[in-house]
Amino acid sequence: MKILPIGHVSLSQAVAGRLSGSVLDGSIKAGEQLPSERELIQQLDISRATLREALKAMEENGLIEARAGVGWFACKLDADNLAAARDLAGAYRQLGAEKTPPGGETPSGPHRLPASSEKPLHVPNLQTDRLGTFEFISWWEKDKVRDANVMVVGAGALGNEVIKNLALMGIGHLFIVDFDTVEAANLSRSVLFREGDTKRSKAQVVASRARSLNPHVHVQYLDGDVTTQLGLGIIRRMDAVIGCLDNREARLALNRFCYWMNKPWVDGAIQELLGLVRTFVPGRGACFECTLTEQARRDLSLRYSCPLLARQNILLGKVPTTPTIASIIGGMQAQEALKLIHGMPVEAGKVVHFNGLTNEMHTSAYVPREDCESHWVYGEVIELPARASRTTLSEMLRLVRQDLGSDAVIELDQELILSLTCPSCHTREEVLRPLEAVTFEAGHCPSCGLLREIELTHEIRGDETFLERTLSSVGVPPLHILRARNSSEFRFYELTGDLSETLHFRHFENPEAVSAIPLRERISLGEAVEPDEGDKGPAAGRIVLHDEKTAPDESVP
After folding, report:
1. Would 453 be classed as within a structural domain?
2. Is the residue at 276 inside a domain?
3. What is the reported pTM?
């Protein structure tokens, strides 16, 4: 008797098969839009990562197509994709989750996928494997943890605890952001700082110490401000983001960035013996901006009479903390990130309060706001062989208008200060810097001492006098994703030419070490780029940007 081998079907293959079965039996008709990602996640009880892997498989087999900013649509079945649909549907039936009725039709309707098979027993060598004891955890998946990309924003007391925990757990890639330096007062509550670290970059110090705790962890740090110096392309490549921040402005910026990139993030806050943890997942419950009071919204508004002073007030208000509450809340944050990496359930849009005075803990839910400005997920991202330091506003606008028409404009994430004008002596200073990068003191006239009038903009419309300035010179960070629009649609453009230098996870490693991020985007400006199949945007095949050595007539055609 011949015994056939038992095939292995991943959960994403099962999801692709389940949806392909719905296309085959007509439950999803040709040209019909699939339910939103949020609805599919809830109906199928799976993670967002699993769903996207399944949708990508269906797209590669010609069963569905993506429409930028709209969603997924079923393609017409024909000789080219019918066999693929049947193969995918067969993979779902292979799990035994569904009996095929007479006639070979697949039942339609919401259906909970079966649980994954039990984790195989593996006995590690505890003498040589530093993460060996984790293998005894039933849900632990070593490969997922090793391959994960996690960003930690803020390297103070909370950040120290979070980074320590992530390094000890073997999170493969840590990206750490902070613009501050170590001072003596940090030493009483920050486990990774030492006496000789004063005046050093916090981000650099904790990244180095994380690497010392676990040399198998790949680290990278950014000594900069999350509100102005972090490219969205970095967040786009993260599996989870953890905020260890001490002001609302930075939290709001991180919340919007994560929502735009459809990435979950974990927020933590501490004061004396009190703390809270909350996980925000786009499309599931409230986000950070939903939690703000009306007074907080007014304080955070960037468009009122004295925005520089408003920012100055926001950044005040440091609160006292203890190392004990930092340890408790930082541990909870790291644990939430671990759950996100494994696709485990989290209570999105809820807050866990811990009262160290009474040792009481309780959870409450926020109410999502229908008009929340953060609730917007970017559509398809078009990857460009462009770099922020070389590409001019004129070049970028020309490319955008090639896609969206002559009325297209580029929208900036922050208000750009064009100039400061003294109301007394009428001297005008051209600034061209983001509002967040200009202090209240700098807003005063150096001659008269009066607060100057501010000229702002958040759009590039084509009639500006500074169009030959580079993107970076007006505050656009490397590997950023710019958004552009006409009267009817938005499109999103990534400066992917910055990828190899901006996201590498190679700090404190051999300079010749291979990057942990696949660098198919290792692109030279001035040459045409053909994106991978299935990853083509409207500008595919016709993007040619020039550097300093390329003549202007060789730029975007």
Report:
1. yes
2. yes
3. 0.70
